[in-house]
Amino acid sequence: MLLNIFNGFCMSLADSVPGVSGGTIAFILGFYKEFLDSIHFAFSGNKNERIKALKFLGKLGIGWAIGMSISVTVLTKLFEQNIYLLSSVFIGLTFASIPFIINSEKKNILGKYQNIIFTLLGTLLVVAISFLRQMLVSGSSANLTTSINFSVLSLGQILYLFISGAAAITAMVLPGISGSTLLLIFGVYVPTISAIKQFISLNFGVIPGIMALGFGIVFGLFVSIKGIRIALEHHYSKMLYMIIGLMLGSFYAIAMGPTTLDTPLPPLSPDTFSIIGFILGVCILLGLEGIKTFLERKTQDK
Question: What residues make up the domain containing 206?
């Protein structure tokens, strides 16, 4: 139980950092496939599979909720004030994780170098998504971020929110792609944050918009998980190469993360890059692997 709560906690901390995906952390910590399977069985499994899946997701959800609560209430200001240090930490963590993944998946990677095209595709996908967000935010399309009012929605806008939610959750479960980046590209990130704040303040007029986005998330989760599981089952080596590409592309996404803050800052550069943060990220990965091993042994002993 402690291991799953810990995993959820780590995912939420990653989700709260601009440009970072919780899916990346799930893959680094080695529970990505179990995460996908549990979501799949929660929708489509038999009674025993569904119970097991919901137990796993419940424990993961507890950790995620704790981590996100801490992020929102305590760490948000800290993130904004130290975004370059934090971005450097996650670059270090991601950089150090790639050799771990290659080492643990040797038989599916070594000798199958024809699949490197999927690494290039994965890298280009993340870079293209991040670059598109920059184009939209810096151009005239930036007005999209305030064009949707969750309280007053046309049928077309409800459908648009549904599609946005489906796309964002698909990105979120893929290592390397940030769901918030997709919401920014669709122009609904700011309205979504505003609607959630209004709902917390007991303004229930925003419920239709939140429901449209929420149903899109549920639909996207069901479809994307099914697709990713099939791809992993039938094309595991190709998917590994692509996931490594997504993680390589996340270097660019993380570097551009400071531009997505409420008060945008310049991207991470050689001048703002922190060597100390990078080394700390490497050490954090080693620490996470150590904690994971300890908790796994503790669970097995029981």
Answer: 82-301
